[in-house]
Specification:
It catalyses: ATP + H2O = ADP + phosphate + H(+). With about 700 residues, the protein is an alpha/beta fold. It has 22 helices and 18 strands. Among the domains are: about 70 residues, no CATH class; about 120 residues, no CATH class. An eight-stranded mixed sheet has the order 8-7-10-11-12-9-13-14, with helices on one face. A four-stranded antiparallel sheet has the order 1-6-5-4. Strands 2-3 form a two-stranded antiparallel sheet. The longest helix has about 45 residues. It is extended, with a radius of gyration of 38 Å. The chain binds adenosine-5'-triphosphate. The site of adenosine-5'-triphosphate has 17 residues, from helix 12 and helix 18.
């Protein structure tokens, strides 16, 4: 077509219309007929029209080639006169450069075309067809501030006497849209954060750019100093540490537990992170890793301590909630992606390797509905605790398998330390175990002072009703100390109470006694409820066994022949064998009908043990004034905590089951238990004081 138009154009420019029509007729048969038709009916000369089109086409292609040449010359000059470094969209440096530009260039120059970003919200409603819930920003405390950054295109500025240009390059989808509609890039789309950057500098050396990038990194480090970087994995499909959260720094002093234990923990980690330690480990062929187990009831500061340690040692915290990890391969991929120096927090480690209870065989059809319900309850509680899909061997493999990274610190938390497998808590995987228990009066006092004292920068909280002098605050804190019973409440409980009187320390101190009494009443009621529930369970079990025995006796009485009796006997044998197989390893052998006797016997033994322990405890208490406490409340009167090396095969034997009501916390604590400073029997479920076990 273009050639036809060109032909018409050249012929007409030569002013030879008849030859043009003849030439066109040759190429398009019937052209002369069309020409006649247009002339007669529309009074239009077709050849003139074609000439006009030819001229326009020539002009446009001329302009295009001029533009292309101009662009080539421009980039040739740019390449000749500038040095440049490009940064990929997913590189942290990319973000750091943008942040620097946002803070130092855009605001100062008063740039008028910007992009804003606050936080990314994935629209679940669209992808999962769920109703999208409106965010309630009034109650959403950690709303991200809006950040203004450069948009697509070039931002120029002067830094260190050099002229810089930073180009933020359009991604393909936005580019397609802008070129199709001929809309300027910044109006065609918004940067999504994965756009590459090119940093250019006038001159022929990259050194000024390197210096500039260094400045951007320093600026980012300074900004991060007030925060802990917590990295988590949210998107299960790409199994990477995809989300970064900045949490305000939490000073270690705000986590209250035994100061001696705290110091020992800090010294241990400092020693491990020392440059010479790695060399020491390497030279001796010891894998350079360190593992800690933080265990104790819920709300005693395990997570808070981990965050505080990350802040203290300037490490990034990689957080994994074990029940949420999909399987071993995901766990392995996440561990492989860890940097060499970091803190890994594995929460609820006891969720790994929990075995399902054996299902009741079909032969046990005589069990009544209530039994089934009680089984259901058990499994529900297991479920509530969260069972991970990871296997124990998968976990052990990432902790110290051949392929596992060296140099990191692993902190594991658990509310059920006694359930952990011996292999998991052996030295090398868990080097130290740290028990965090219930709060002591002294820790409550410190918490009171922290809550109502001046802020970290020394400024008095602006929203306080009455600003009390420090001396008065200390007096109230001491008053509060005296009302809090020793190691009954969790720190989270006390913090919750104080938060109710956030602006009024006077009310907090005045109402403390009433709160304590109410909490103790609730604890006692919950304990009583649990005792009754246990009793009812025991009774039902006993009745079921009696019913079974009666059935058996009935069957024996009605037997018709020796063969039938033999068949019955074999059935019973098989059932016994099956039961034995189903029992967890280590469980004692039980006989039909003998279970009750065994448990009675056990109870008697326990009672005896309890008596002995109580008298032992009394003896100890008598001598406590002379000897420093090994367990329980710290030497300085702070919250119960204990740190100790991991003995081989520590799991299980050192703790005792108990239940803390109010907040329905169920936990295991070491054998010696005190309530309100008095020795208590360990037979009944009691509220723990969280005294460290004799590991
Ligand atoms: N020892 C403590 N000192 C100061 N605050 C504490 C302490 N323990 C708990 N808290 C407070 O209680 C809340 C819960 O604490 P945290 O999440 O650290 O407990 P946890 O032991 O990890 O609980 P869980 O086992 O349920 O995960 C936090 O707000 C924290 O500030």
């Amino acid at each position: 077509m273009n050639s036809l138009v060109a032909l018409a154009g050249t012929s007409l420019l030569n002013n030879d219309k008849s030859t043009t029509v003849q030439d066109l007729e040759k190429r398009i048969p019937g052209f002369s007929v069309l020409q006649d038709f247009f002339k007669k009916w529309l009074r239009l000369d077709l050849t003139t029209l074609l000439t006009a089109a030819a001229l326009m086409g020539a002009a446009s292609s001329g302009a295009q080639s001029i533009q292309e040449t101009g662009s080539k010359v421009y980039w040739w000059i740019v390449r000749f006169l500038t040095a440049s470094i490009s940064i990929a969209g997913n590189d942290r440096l990319n973000r750091e450069v943008l942040n620097w530009l946002g803070a130092h260039v855009l605001l100062k120059k008063g740039t008028r075309i910007l992009t804003a970003n606050s936080e990314t919200i994935r629209n679940d409603a669209w992808s999962y067809r769920r109703v999208n819930q409106e965010r309630n920003d009034y109650h959403h405390e950690k709303r991200m501030p809006v950040q203004y950054l450069p948009t697509f295109g070039t931002t120029w500025f002067i830094h260190g006497r050099n002229i810089f240009m930073v180009r933020r390059i359009l991604t393909s989808s936005a580019h397609y849209h802008s070129s199709w509609t001929r809309t300027p890039d910044e109006y065609a789309g918004a940067p999504e954060g994965d756009e590459p950057l090119v940093v250019m500098c006038l001159g022929r050396s990259v050194e000024p750019i390197k210096r500039f990038l260094g400045t951007c990194r320093e600026f980012a480090d300074k900004q991060r100093e007030a925060y802990i970087t917590v990295r988590i994995s949210k998107r299960s499909y790409d199994e990477t540490w995809d989300t970064t959260i900045l949490r305000p720094l939490r000073p270690l002093e705000t986590v209250h537990f035994d100061e001696t234990v705290k110091e020992s923990l800090v010294a241990d980690i400092s020693n491990y992170l020392d440059v010479n330690t790695r060399k020491f480990y390497n030279r001796r062929g010891i894998p350079y890793r360190r593992g800690f187990l933080l265990y104790g009831p819920p709300g005693t500061g395990k997570t808070s301590l981990s965050l505080a340690l990350a802040g203290k040692f300037g490490l990034e915290l990689y957080l994994l909630h074990m029940p949420s990890v999909r399987d071993d391969s995901v766990l392995e991929k996440l561990f492989t992606a860890l940097p060499p120096r970091c803190l890994v927090l594995l929460e609820d480690i006891d969720a790994v390797g929990i075995k399902r209870r054996p299902r009741k065989s079909d032969d046990d059809d005589d069990s009544d509905d209530s039994d089934k319900n009680s089984d259901k309850d058990d499994s529900d509680s297991d479920h509530g605790r969260g069972r991970s899909s990871c296997t124990l061997s998968g976990l052990l493999n990432v902790l110290d398998g051949v392929a596992s990274q060296e140099g990191r610190i692993v902190l594991m938390t658990s509310n059920f330390a006694e359930k952990l497998d011996k292999a998991l808590v052996r030295p090398g995987r868990v080097d130290k175990m740290l028990y965090l228990g219930h709060i002591s009066p002294r820790s409550s006092e410190l918490m009171f002072l922290r809550m109502y004292g001046p802020d970290a920068d020394g400024a008095a909280p602006a929203d306080r009703e009455v600003q009390l002098p420090q001396q008065e605050l200390e007096r109230l804190a001491l008053e509060f100390n005296k009302t809090i019973p020793d190691e009954v409440f969790t720190p989270a409980q006390v913090q919750g109470y104080l938060l109710n009187y956030r602006n009024s320390p006077l009310d907090a101190a005045a109402n403390a006694l009433e709160w304590v009494q109410e909490e103790l009443r609730l604890i006692a009621a919950a304990k009583e409820k649990e005792r009754k529930a246990n009793e009812a369970k025991r009774k039902k079990r006993k009745e079921r066994k009696l019913r079974r025995a009666a059935k058996m006796a009935e069957a024996m009485r009605n037997y018709a022949s020796d063969e039938e009796l033999e068949e019955l006997r074999q059935k019973v044998e098989e059932k016994k064998k099956r039961k034995k197989k189903d029992q967890p390893a280590g469980a004692g052998e039980k006989t039909e009908g003998g279970d009750e006797k065994q448990s009675e016997q056990k109870e008697k033994e326990k009672e005896k043990e309890g008596e002995e322990k109580r008298s032992e405890e009394k003896e100890k208490e008598a001598g406590e004034d002379e000897a420093p406490k090994q367990n329980g409340t710290g030497q300085n009167g702070t919250t119960a905590a204990a740190i100790h090396d991991t003995p081989n095969g520590v799991s299980g034997e050192h703790t005792k089951e108990e239940t803390a009501s109010n907040g329905a916390t169920e936990d295991k604590a070491p054998p010696k238990v005190k309530v309100n400073g008095q020795a208590a029997s360990t037979e009944e479920p009691v509220v723990t004081n969280g005294i460290s076990g004799e590991h």
